[in-house]
UniProtKB/TrEMBL annotation:
Organism in which the protein naturally occurs: Streptomyces apricus
Function: Involved in the oxidation of myo-inositol (MI) to 2-keto-myo-inositol (2KMI or 2-inosose).
Domain Gfo/Idh/MocA-like oxidoreductase N-terminal intervals: 8-128
Catalytic reaction annotation: myo-inositol + NAD(+) = scyllo-inosose + NADH + H(+)
The protein's name: Inositol 2-dehydrogenase
Gene: iolG
Upper lineage: Bacteria, Bacillati, Actinomycetota, Actinomycetes, Kitasatosporales
Quaternary organization: Homotetramer.
EC numbers on record: 1.1.1.18
Length: 339
């Protein structure tokens, strides 16, 4: 691909996230086109490809990655399918934006790290889109000035309206709190060293058998304490909030105070109903940044190391949830390749 041509992207997995990324690449992103779509559901993928000129439909990711006009890959299949897709992308030396999780489990994430290192250059960006959310970006920039002093604590709230069918207690950690793991590492520039999970009496809104909400505590390598209220059947809205408490002040995001109305004896604003609404801008910026970097021949953004490190914290989190008590995170040494 030359710099003047658009980036031909194969989108693997065209469910909720994949279909939204196809729309984004087709209608919002500059410098890219959807060259191929892949899904094990042949009818679904054909329907999507038929709506986009020059886009081919595949049911096999490997066939799509070998096709003419495919310069890069966006993986949005379920996490269990990510390792195979990543390995195939490496065989073709294709740049990848891989939805979180990089892979479910640290052993498979380590295999991906090793394979990327064998290539000799970075190819993977992981879809931790909150790093592109303007509010989180502002918070990070403020912390970097040092004006507030050293971060002591980070309080997070992560609320979803309701869970889809099949959502398990482990998924509150692996699918949901994984975002706070990434945000903690990114904002504080520290690794998470231990996890404790407290379990309130489940909400009456939660499906039978689901441990929801949970209260998760991280300890970090720099001595900060981080808590996460994960509450995924709250019923009223999609909310992601964070407050950093530092030595000389605090900073808070996610209150959603964009538009406040006063009417009929009340004041207030709307609460987003899901992540595609709350983080629409972040997803747009993430994909644009990935396309721009890829066209420059660079890889920026969250790396495969970030994907591995969060997988390791997820494992500790699930053990803490199931066994109780404080579980230390087991993390490999960070290779210089990911410095
Ligand atoms: N960043 C975020 O905020 C965010 C939000 C939701 C989901 N996700 C991630 O996006 C990914 C997809 O989630 P989703 O909610 O869209 O799931 P989904 O179930 O809606 O869609 C997955 C799609 O992949 C297809 N598929 C299954 N196996 C496949 C394979 N081997 N090859 C190709 N296609 C295959 C399925 O048929 C389905 O159409 C997951 O990794 C999930 O964790 C990220
Ligand atoms: O997979 C989704 C997604 O990652 C959302 O950003 C998160 O808020 C949800 O809790 C999770 O289930």
């Amino acid at each position: 691909m030359s710099r003047s041509t658009t980036l031909g992207v194969a989108v693997i997995g065209t469910g909720r996230m994949g279909a939204d990324h196809v729309r984004r690449l087709h209608e919002v992103t500059n410098g890219a086109r959807v060259a191929a779509v892949v899904d094990v559901d042949a009818e679904r993928v054909k329907r999507i490809a038929d709506g986009i000129e020059g886009c081919s439909a595949f049911t096999d990711p490997a066939a799509a990655m070998a096709a003419d006009g495919v310069d890069a890959v966006l993986i949005a299949s379920p996490g269990t399918a990510h390792e195979a897709a990543l390995m195939t992308a490496f065989e073709h030396d294709l740049p990848v934006l891989c939805e979180k999780p990089l892979t479910p489990g640290s052993a498979s994430a380590l295999r991906v790290l090793e394979a990327e290192q064998r290539l000799g250059h970075r190819r993977v960006q992981v879809g931790f889109m909150r790093r592109y959310d303007p509010e989180y970006v502002q918070l990070k920039a403020l912390l970097e000035t040092g004006r507030l002093g050293r971060p002591l604590m980070l309080h997070n709230r992560h609320r979803n309206v309701a869970t889809p069918p099949g959502f398990t207690s482990e998924m509150l950690i692996n699918d949901s709190v994984v975002h706070e793991m990434d945000i903690t590492r990114w904002l504080l520039e520290q690794e998470i060293t231990a996890v404790t999970v407290l379990k309130p009496t489940p909400s009456g809104n939660a499906p039978e058998g689901l441990q929801d909400p949970q209260f998760v505590v991280f300890e970090t390598s720099g001595g900060a304490i981080v808590d996460v209220e994960i509450n995924v059947n709250c019923g009223f809205g999609y909310q992601v909030q964070a407050e950093v408490v530092c030595e000389r002040g605090t900073a808070r995001i996610g209150d959603g105070h964009a538009l406040v109305t006063q009417q009929a004896g009340h004041w207030g604003g709307a609460i987003a109903q899901d992540y595609t609404e709350r983080f629409e801008d972040a997803y747009d910026r993430q994909v644009q940044a990935w396309v721009d970097a890829t066209r420059r021949g660079e890889v920026t953004g969250p790396s495969a190391w970030d994907g591995y490190a969060t997988a390791a914290v997820c494992e500790a989190g699930v053990r803490a949830q199931q066994e109780g008590g404080r579980v230390e995170v087991t993390l490999a040494d960070r290779p210089p390749f990911y410095a």
